[in-house]
Specification:
By secondary structure, the protein is α+β, with helices and mostly antiparallel strands. Helices cover 49% and strands 13% of the residues. The strands form four sheets. Strands 1, 2, 3, 4, 7 and 13 form a six-stranded mixed sheet that branches. It has a three-stranded mixed sheet with strand order 8-12-14, with helices on both faces. Strand 1, helix 3 and strand 2 (77-83) form a beta-alpha-beta unit. The radius of gyration is 23 Å and the shape is globular. Residues 1-39 have low confidence and may be disordered. The structure holds beta-D-galactopyranose (GAL). Beta-D-galactopyranose (GAL) binds at residues 53-54, 59, 87-89, 112, 165, 273, 293, 324, 326, 396.
Length: 439
């Protein structure tokens, strides 16, 4: 098990307090076996492998903060940061799948709350429930029930939310927008008009668009626009197979994207989300519709919220919050299981979330992290999260199963080329028939 050194030291140091008599009655082998089945937390030495796709500015900094906290608590554990680049896990998810199927899981991995975990690795019986950790850490009183419900199934909890990202945000270069005397758009029609005004005023590609890594960024435009055209109930219905993608609300959502595309850079397939952010910083684009990991990116590049850049809900979605929630779970067969339990506790802790989220761009999943630690935009999002209508993202794994999201990604890649609203809506409905009705 590789944890002997610490286990002995730690146990002996504790023995005088509580467990000495019990230790005296055990053989060393019994003692080691007992350590190996501990559910109470890290064994304190050995390794810990954490798997994620957080390589971008802001996100890697947030992760590093949590590693610091872990290392402070467990200085003898060596952390391996297994990161696979590619926004939204475009490559990481495939690498993870190979490892999970090959019986070689990391000790803990980043996964979106909900379907991305429940309909895949939980269903395949590859995860351990973390219900007992959830209860012993008292997270019921700290993490909203809505989030707990998303990470639960069959009476068990399967992962711990470390944050809440907002998927429906429009970021803008504030100085540039102000200099062109254009207001941040509120509605989809405002957006089209703002893009046209900016182009007339000399910015040829005012909309920064990334689609590298499978078009998940375009899928975000789609889901945000469906939320705008149809409202929260329609959005939830269409994402659960109860309403049709051929509905006029979906064709409206696609039509808006089609209207915006002529204002976007033509090299979207060559750039990922953080490079699209860079277009705003360089002043070659004004707008980027992206989750608030963009804010973590901007601030890590010393761009100041509400001075250099601003944010509004993506067009037409004021009062609604598209939840993108990152969590960590416990795969069966984790080689350093006890250390992974300690990691999950850091992820769910006040200290962990207070250090991670200001850098990551997200707001904490816990309700007791002081808002004063966050920038003005995050503070506004924290307030809106409490009053807005919450909906789960499909592009980021919570609302729909992975096979549906991946089909939609491909379809949106086609849409960038053919811009055929009717055909795309009908193909999306085929994906719904195949993957949502049976989910
Ligand atoms: C999302 C994830 C975020 C951020 C983003 C870009 O799927 O939830 O935490 O990493 O991808 O990579």
């Amino acid at each position: 098990m590789g944890n002997e050194r610490w286990s002995r030291r730690k146990f002996v140091s504790r023995a005088g307090k509580t467990a000495g008599a019990a230790f005296l009655g055990l053989s060393f082998a019994d003692f080691l076996a007992a350590c190996g089945t501990s559910t109470s937390g890290t064994s304190g030495s050995g390794k810990l492998e954490i798997f994620s796709w957080w390589t971008g500015p802001g996100e890697k900094d947030g992760l590093a903060e949590m590693f610091k906290i872990y290392t402070k608590k467990y200085p003898s554990v060596t952390i391996t940061n297994s990161v696979v680049a590619g926004g939204a896990g475009s490559t990481a998810k495939a690498v993870l799948a190979t490892r999970m199927q090959g019986g070689n899981p990391p000790d803990s991995f980043q996964v979106h709350a909900g379907q991305e975990l429940i309909s895949s690795w939980v269903k395949a019986s590859k995860m351990e429930p973390i219900t007992s950790i959830w209860n012993s850490e008292g997270w019921d009183s700290k993490i909203p029930k809505d989030l707990k419900d998303i990470v639960s199934s069959n009476g068990d909890v399967w992962s711990v939310p470390v944050n809440v990202h907002r998927g429906n945000a429009l970021w803008y270069n504030k100085k540039l927008l102000d200099s062109k005397s254009v207001n941040p758009p509120q509605s989809a029609e405002d957006m089209t008009s703002a893009l046209s005004q900016l182009k007339a005023k000399g910015i040829t590609t005012p909309l920064a668009l990334a689609s590298k890594g499978g078009n998940w960024q375009v899928q975000m435009l789609l889901e945000n626009n469906i939320l705008a055209s149809g409202g929260a109930d329609f959005y939830k219905n269409v994402m659960s197979g109860k309403a049709s993608f051929t509905d006029s609300k979906v064709t409206q959502a696609l039509t808006w994207i089609k209207q915006w595309l002529p204002y976007a850079n033509s090299d979207s397939s060559a750039i990922d989300w953080d490079e699209a952010d860079n277009r705003l910083i360089a002043g070659t684009a004004v707008f980027h519709i992206m989750g608030d990991w963009a804010k973590g990116d901007f601030t890590s590049k010393n761009w100041v919220p509400n001075t250099d850049f601003g944010a509004v809900p993506s067009p037409g979605t004021t009062g609604k919050y598209m939840i993108v929630c990152d969590t960590f779970g416990l795969p069966k067969g984790a080689k350093d299981r006890d250390n992974a339990v300690g990691w999950l506790k850091v992820c769910g802790s006040q200290e962990g979330q207070a250090a991670f989220n200001p850098k990551k761009g997200s707001i904490p999943a816990r309700t007791d992290v002081p808002a004063s630690l966050f920038d003005a935009i995050a503070q506004q999002f924290m307030a809106e999260f409490k009053t807005d209508t919450l909906v789960p993202s499909s592009a980021h794994g919570s609302a729909t199963p992975p096979n549906f999201a991946s089909g939609v990604n491909d379809e949106m890649g086609q849409f960038l080329q053919n811009k055929d609203v009717t055909k795309t809506a009908s193909n999306l409905q085929k994906l719904s028939d195949e993957f949502l009705k049976t989910a």
